[in-house]
Every structure is written in C-alpha cells, then in structure tokens.
C-alpha cells in the first residue's frame, strides 16, 4: 500500500510540475547575405547571427542543436530558410515549429511557422520546402532566431502544445523579450 501511495504521489508531482526547458545557443553564421557578382547585404559586418533553441522535455519532438533560419537570395528575391533537424521520441503525424526572428537591437521582426503533416518515426532534417519570403530590410536587420516546437500530434492522436509562459520565462533569463502575440498560432486560433 505504501508503495502504491508513493507511486501515486510521484505521478501527481510529475504531471503537475512544469516541464523542464533546455536552452541551447548556437552560432548561426554571418549576417552577410550574398546576392551574386560580389554584391552582399551587410558587407563588411563582423556580426554573427545567434540561434537559440528551446526544447521542452515533455514534448515528443526535439529540435537538434543547429536549428535556425538562414537568409538567401535566389535571383528573384530574398528568403528565410530553415536549417537543422528534429528528433522524434515516438511516432508523430504532424508538428508545428515556430521561429521567432529578432533584429540587431533585440526587437521582434516576425515569426515564421513550419507546419508539417506527415508520418514520422525517425529523426530528419528540414526539407527545402521550409522557406518564407523576406524583404531586404528584414534580411539586413535579422540577428537572433528563437526556435521551439509549438505543437505536435502523435500517431496515437495525443496533441501536445507549448506553454507561452514557459517560453517567456526562459527567454527572460537571457534577456530576450517574448510575447504570446509573437506566436502565429494565436492568429490561427482566432480564425
């Protein structure tokens, strides 16, 4: 009986305790974007982008330590392109990853979301389809990328969602502002 009571207390604590979030900072490469023929955006800058990856221990999908957003010029315009990969702890059917972009002064530029609806049972890299239109101003000012898993649907039908207050609390520790309104999920939920 004592063993059962101890187990129940442990399970209750595990369920109600907030999940641990792990923060990883990675060098995201130079802020210089090549346009071709020797022309570059931010030519002469020594700044390096910083990618900040947040992983929730209870989430069935984890971002690897090299997840972030690169900038490219393809001849027709600028794009933000996702880089890195994910690891799955159990088979999943869909996921949404948010990439919150900040400028050189730490102010929010925009948030990109990558929603994929596909069965996954193993780790994978982001595909080339994970790209978004960018303006020249956004490309030239972009310095920080915060990446986190926003939602996951497991193959068994369980839906996991991020907690905006945990994201805000974790980013406050490293002096990066975060508001729940930065999440594209807020707009989707209002439709």
What does this 3D model show about the protein?
Residues 5-17 and 187-191 have low confidence and may be disordered. The chain is of the alpha+beta class and 191 residues long. The chain has one domain (18-190). The longest helix is centred in the first third of the chain and has 15 residues, at 2-16. Helices cover 20% and strands 48% of the residues. A hairpin with a 2-residue loop joins β2 and β3 (39-41).
Question: TL;DR?
Answer:
Helix content is 20%, strand content 48%. It has 191 residues and is an alpha+beta fold.
The biggest beta sheet, please?
6 strands, mixed
Share of β-strand residues: over 45%
Assign the structural class, choosing from mainly alpha, mainly beta, alpha/beta, alpha+beta, or little secondary structure.
Answer: alpha+beta
Looking at the structure, what is the overall shape? globular
């Amino acid at each position: 009986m004592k063993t059962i009571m101890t187990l129940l207390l442990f399970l209750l604590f595990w369920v109600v305790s907030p999940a641990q979030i792990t923060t990883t900072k990675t060098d995201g490469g130079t802020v210089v974007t090549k346009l071709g023929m020797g022309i570059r955006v931010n030519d002469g800058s020594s700044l390096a982008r910083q990618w900040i990856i947040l992983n929730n221990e209870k989430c069935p999908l984890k971002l690897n330590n090299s997840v972030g957003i690169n900038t490219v010029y393809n001849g027709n315009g600028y794009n933000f392109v996702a880089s890195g990969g994910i690891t799955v702890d159990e088979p999943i059917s869909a996921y949404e990853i948010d990439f919150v972009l900040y400028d050189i002064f730490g102010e929010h530029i925009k948030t990109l979301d990558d929603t994929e609806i596909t069965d996954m049972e193993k780790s994978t890299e982001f595909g080339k389809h994970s790209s978004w239109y960018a303006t020249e101003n956004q490309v030239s000012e972009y310095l920080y990328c915060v990446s986190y898993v926003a939602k996951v649907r497991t193959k068994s039908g369980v839906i996991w969602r991020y907690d905006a207050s945990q994201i805000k609390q974790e980013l406050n520790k490293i002096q990066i502002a975060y508001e729940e309104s930065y999440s594209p999920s807020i707009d989707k939920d209002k439709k």
